Amino acid sequence: MPEESLLERRARLLGPAYRLFYEAPLHPVRGEGVWLDDADGKRYLDAYNNVASVGHCHPHVVEAIARQAGVLNTHTRYLHEGVLDYAERLLATMPRELGHAMFTCTGSEANDLAMRIAKAHTKAEGLIVTRFAYHGVTESIAQASPSLGRFVQLGRAVRTVPAPDSYRVPAGEQGAAFAAGVRAAIADLQAHGIRPAALMVDTVFSSDGIFTDPAGFLTEAVAAIREAGGIFIADEVQPGLGRTGDAFWGFMRHEGLVPDIVTMGKPLGNGHPLAGLAVRPEVLAAFGRECRYFNTFGGNPVSMAAGMAVLDVIGREGLMANAQRVGRHLRAGLSKLAERHELIGDVRGAGLFVGLELVTDRRARTPATAETVRVVNGLRERQVLLSATGEHANTLKIRPPLVFSEANADLLIGTLDEVLAGL
Ligand code: PMP
What spacing in Å lies between the alpha carbon of 360 and ligand 1's midpoint? Predict the structure, then answer.
């Protein structure tokens, strides 16, 4: 079996730290739009990859990368229009207070840089994140990623707060409850002699379980961190770039909310490693005085061409509107399924970022963790790809390329119906 030999080679060559998806690991060899083809020629509906956000191997992006790679690829210590044109275009998608852009290759580096900027600006070090957050792999950011669980200890200056859980916190109280958590974390930092530098949140709480509503639930917590001298960092690595349908960035769903730093990654280059941040000039000033920043690959001409091409496609193909329309259709279909399947406790999300929480008891909202594993693997067997999220890994995470159609959504819903019926 070729799959066995790949497994054996992975273990031998890559060592023990990597993990595969699914009980029967997938071996895709080709991608196109919302589809992945495996080595046996089977076609899978990809309802999970937000990295290939404008569709796997989009020809406009592939062509832009190839064209620039054939002309010049250098770095930001030479003059080049590419990085300026892309910075201009990216910043134009945000409130004008966010006046500078900086580029990295990964979301982890963007968050790490954001924290260096926050510390230089505030002369403080405390960081508040949500209870099951994931923000990346560098040492300092892994220590602020409690979803890594037993693998990594939280940093001394890191505190966690419950996410604004729209399923368990009573309607209308999410914002106040979230802010109360942030105030308690600030007080605890201060009690330990640590001043808060930042509140960093994924604006749709992707790893806490996907909480998008009600819009506005971030405002009070952001006011609290600013009152305590800290800044607000919006981690848009997962929610950003049109995915929520109603706004280009997740934070923009919350009226009047302007972060101090916005970090970005995954979908920016449609698979090409492109990430970065946008920042208020006054927040960047101290870091700029105290440090110089050079990231060998961050902001290179090929990455910038990839980023530009992705923005072209989102605009030309109306993908934000598509995310909104198809997302609504998908949630409506999933809500209908909930009428027939007791296991579905909650359907939530915005645009094409959808969470489906599975519970064994609707009244007690008991996480159906074991059942969720079976559903994810059952879907994979029937050639539909997605995964699970949240502290109890019982929320199906549906986050397809933005070119997902209503017919794709119907295929997903129909297949899920079969899998749930067969449990
Ligand atoms: N922030 C969030 C919210 C993420 O989901 C991730 C990646 N899963 C990161 C940061 C880190 O990005 P990367 O893997 O590109 O370093």
Answer: 30
> Does ipTM come in above 0.90?
yes
Rounded average pLDDT per 10-residue block, the chain, 423 residues: 80 94 97 97 97 98 98 97 98 98 98 98 98 97 94 94 96 96 98 98 98 96 98 98 98 96 98 98 98 97 98 98 98 98 98 98 98 98 98 98 98 98 96
pLDDT attached to residue 150: 81
Q: From the CB of 111, is ligand 1 less than 6 Å away?
A: yes
Output the pTM of the full model: 0.98
Q: Which amino acid is at 151?
A: F
What pLDDT is attached to residue 3? 60
Assess if CATH 3.40.50.2000 describes domain 2-54+318-421: no
What phi and psi values does residue 21 have, to the nearest 5 degrees? -80, 150
Q: Where are the domains of the chain?
A: 2-54+318-421, 60-316
Q: Which atom of ligand 1 is nearest to the CA of 202?
A: 3
Q: Which residues of 397-410 are buried (b: 16+ CB within 10 A; e: fewer)?
A: bbbbbbbbeeebbe
pLDDT of residue 4: 66
Tokens 């927040």 locate to 283
E strand map for 362-422: 366-367, 384-385, 387-389, 395-398
Which CATH code for domain 60-316? 3.40.640.10
Q: Sort strands 384-385 and 43-46 into parallel, antiparallel or unpaired.
A: parallel
CA of 248 to the centre of ligand 1 (A): 18
Cα gap 272→253, rounded to integer Å: 27
Residue type, 202: D
Tell me how far CA of residue 366 lies from CA of 338, 369, 392, 395, 416, in angstroms.
Answer: 16, 9, 10, 12, 20
- CA distances 343 to 168, 180, 273, 374, Å, are 16, 31, 38, 12
Give the chain's radius of gyration (CA, Å). Answer: 21
Residue in the structure block whose two tokens are 């960035």: 249
Q: Determine the distance separating the centroid of ligand 1 and the alpha carbon of 104, expressed in angstroms.
A: 12
Q: Is the CB of 137 under 6 A from ligand 1?
A: yes
